[in-house]
Specification:
The complex is a heterodimer of chains A (330) and B (345).
Chain A (H helix, E strand, L loop, with lengths): L1 E4 H15 L3 E5 L14 H5 L4 E3 L4 H13 L3 E5 L3 H4 L3 H8 L2 H4 L9 E3 L17 H5 L5 E3 L4 H13 L4 E3 L9 E4 L11 E4 L4 E5 L3 H14 L4 E5 L2 E3 L3 H11 L2 E8 L4 H13 L3 E6 L8 H6 L3 H13 L13
Helix pairs in contact in A: 1-8, 3-5, 9-13, 10-11
Chain B lengths: L5 H4 L3 H24 L29 H7 L7 E3 L5 H7 L3 H8 L33 H15 L5 E6 L6 H12 L4 E7 L2 E2 L2 E2 L9 H7 L4 E5 L3 H16 L5 E6 L17 H8 L3 H11 L4 H24 L22
Parallel strand pairs in B: 1-2, 2-3, 3-7, 6-7
Antiparallel strand pairs in B: 4-5
Helix pairs in contact in B: 2-3, 2-4, 2-11, 2-12, 3-4, 3-9, 5-12, 6-7
Classes of the chains: A alpha/beta (330), B alpha/beta (345).
Bound molecules: thiamine diphosphate and magnesium ion.
Amino acid sequence: MAVMSYAQAACSALARAMREDERVVAVGEDLGRGGVFGQYRGLAQTFGAARVIDAPISESAILGAAVGMALVGLRPVVEMRVADFAMCAIDEMVNQAAKNRYMFGGQGRVPLVARLPIGIWSASAAQHSQSIEAWFAHTPGLVVVAPSSPADNYGLLRAAIACDDPVVYHEHKELWGVDGEVPEAHRVALGEAKVLRAGRDLTLVSWSRTVLDALEAAQSAAASGVSVEVIDLRTLWPWDRETVLASCARTGRLMVAHEAVQAAGFGAEIAATAAEELGIPVTRLGAPRIPVGYAAALEAEARIGSRRILEALLAWMEGRGRRRFSAATD
Amino acid sequence: MESDSSPADRIAPERLAALYRTMLRIRAFENAAEVASRGGVAAFGAAAAAGALVRGPLHLSTGQEAVPAGVCANLARSDYLTSTHRGHGHAIAKGAEPRAMMCELFGKSGGTNGGKGGSMHIADFSAGMLGANGVVAAGIPIAAGAAHAIRIRGGDAVVACFFGDGAVNRGPFLEGLNWARVFDLPVLFVCEDNRYSATTATESMTGGEGAAARARAIGVPAQQVDGNDVAAVDAAAARLLALVREGGGPQFLHALTYRFKGHVSVDPATYRDAAEVERALAQDPIERAGQRLAALGVDADRLRALREEAEAEIARALAAAAASPAPPAHAAYRDVQDCGAGQWR
Ligand SMILES: Cc1ncc(C[n+]2csc(CCOP(=O)(O)OP(=O)(O)O)c2C)c(N)n1
Ligand SMILES: [Mg+2]
């Protein structure tokens, strides 16, 4: 078992997939120099430029070509650099990759993995910080993944590459440098959540980087006598209803926390499902509906963070209802 | 290179001195921003250290100053400009205040954008500078649209649309140029060709004969120019903008230059050949203009004074940025939209 960073874990998962299956290729800008975050480091040297394909700044062609590659026998892993730039390829993702199989009556399969790093990249402002996983969870035909740890980035990237459906794979920019143990055989099934902390009073569901904040909040809540069960959803579509609802049935309450904007976020889907299925009280916490600003004070407003999760959670448990946080809208 | 070099050869010393001054102001700004950003930029996987004065990704235009200086010398404040992620030079040359720009880089409320945007989104609409942009090629259709509005509303303003060599491989390049052509719009497209797209040599990723050839294929006349010769850029822009102003539709200037620094300030750019960098540094547009001014008889004291003035101006900008207050947290909810503005849910 090796200790490696979230970026290295992804790199070694991809390297392994490329070794084991010659149909796997990587496509994206600057991949030959290791990718923007070093998540492709060394791959071009090992596998050559024919399989680690440097692309022009042509997001729609990168993703569109990947659809064609996938239809004709390859398994492309496509880099969008940051999720924000994947918006330049939204037709290829939503109208092409996601629709192909169904629209053509099941003739084609599109086994591609599109990597869309999400999340606030500190001081990079509104066009490099978005979390848009809900857009894809809303789109039939797509699998949506968002790992929170090096081990899961390794295990889930392997599973995503092995999946015959198009997978939108969200890594988080503030997780690249996080280290953790990564067992070599680790593989995580798509659609499987993980209970990271057991608790009695409330189920707290999260994914991606916000899982770290959720764990911190749960620890602090324990000091206030509130026992929180923390679940890392890991895959947003298909999401693990069984694990989440079983936990909710035990604790009797559900809170979902995510970095993406709260309004129309994926937390609403989980909360609504728990309310429908179990009739339990639910709440959710996401970012305010504002773009991410550059200045530190503005950026901080768009961050959820453990403090806000803790505040919301305790206020809710004490029956004080949901509070608005920090600055009032003026 | 088909630049008509004669007007550039005949440039008046005073005009060249003004171009030189613009380049010096841009260079001083870039150098100061670079120093202020040390340790603060989160890029290429590295985390930002707290405490740096400029925290955001910093795309420096050091070495490319002749292009905005030469082009914008031929624009009025009432003309428009669209920019890129590497936009400091465009902003200064178009008339934005370095003081407000530096405040923006520092994330202060006195910034051009009130601290909302930072370096990558510098904008000064009061100077017709419609914004730096974090999305490559995004400014090209926007420039076409601005020109379309000018056409419909009347008036004699024009639009200068700056983008890099990497942008010609994105769809909006084709779509924006074609739009400007079919509607005969008053746009000067300016490709600042520094030969790199982030860490990739653009040539290796670009088919055909490059930017100018692509423009011509869409019916937009194009001229190539030595983008490190500010007088040549000035002369070419003067000629092309005159054609644009006459109503002949879009024109295209392909300026060949070089990016002295890495893609962002923390990029050591080790993927570039040392000899290539060496050759490019020898073509420093500011050095070249300085030598030319000396040859035209402008004395050394005058040149030194221009350099010192530019540096003093940027020193004042730094001081102002340090003194400007940070925006209050509630500003995060301002300017989102009018209808249903800045709400939690
Ligand atoms: C649509 C899109 N894809 C990728 C990027 C990441 N990116 C930022 S700048 C850049 C290189 C741009 O090269 P060029 O257009 O030549 O401009 P230069 O940086 O050389 O000034 C890239 C790939 C982006 N900002 N937008
Ligand atoms: Mg370039």
